[in-house]
Amino acid sequence: MIPSPLTLFGGFTALEATVAVLVVSVVAAAAMEFVVIRVARRFVSTTDSAYDDILVSSLRAPLVVTAALAGVFVLTQVPAVRSSVLVSPQLLDAAFGRPSLSVIVLVWAYAANTVVNRLVAAVNVEGGRFDFAPVFSNVWTIAVFVGSVGTLLWLWGVEITPLLGAAGVAGIAVGFAAKDTVANFFGGIALYFDDTYKIGDYIVLDDGTAGTVIKVGVRSTTLLTRDEVLVTVPNAALNASKVTNESAPQRRRRVRVPIGVAYGTDVDEFEALALAVVGAESLVLDSPKPRARFRSFGDSSLQYEILCWVNGPTRRRRAQHELNRALYIALGDADIEIPYPKRDVTVSGAVGPAVAARDGAPESDADPSADAAT
Question: How far apart (Å, rounded) are the C-alpha atoms in residues 143 and 339?
């Protein structure tokens, strides 16, 4: 029968077993730091991916700490040491064994949370093709926290079964008390799986609120408006409302510039001039090409619409401004009239004192206020 590692030190004295285990722990930690980690770093430096660099850098601390503290835990399990120390085995476990395991659990929990969050951030940088909503990082952080707390309670001998029952009852109470928070949480998850938007997208809500998404949290989403004002919108409200993502599926957006020209205008000349003005604007994309569309016959003008594309929804307003200015100047130089509604007003039915006298009416019947007015 092969002896277990804990029985290999059975023939040693307490001092010899202690020194041996501590030496092995220090050597293991040093080997992990200067051999394993260094070789792993040298290997990942030759690859093009950044993910393995994140993995190695994040796992360095827990590997070294585990190699060092595992020896302390093993030391508390060596029979020679347990029987020779001045304190009881229970106190030895409470002072050295369980604390060392607790530190290992905490270090690995922190590393697991860090490596996943860094990987998610790195994947987000890759672009929309690998879109990981930040809410995934928040859910993972909560899961790691709950798992590490449960492990520590089990490690220190705390019975968690009653706690689970109490947690169930408390969960129901908290669910009713914090139903808005729970709704926001699941609303954020639904928005992620529906791929409604991601950070950097420009969205418009059905109530008119519009802005660029700069943060997606567990409870809410933060928008930066064109006025540089931060607007925090609960995820439940976003999930229940109509959201227009103007940055998807492509960032380019079409600009419509309505314009009217007078009846009798040479439409070929006008269309050529308008397209030349639009094509000269730097904000306008060359492809798709700008177009001029004759929409309708208005009351006093021929109603046209100039269509072009810009690279991003936030450039539409500025493009409209620049195009309106340029078209106004160009049409004025070309003597092409931009008409406005004109009305002829005819005033009739007014009867004054002179008209009444001419028609044979007595002057006394005229309006007495007329003399006062004169």
Answer: 67
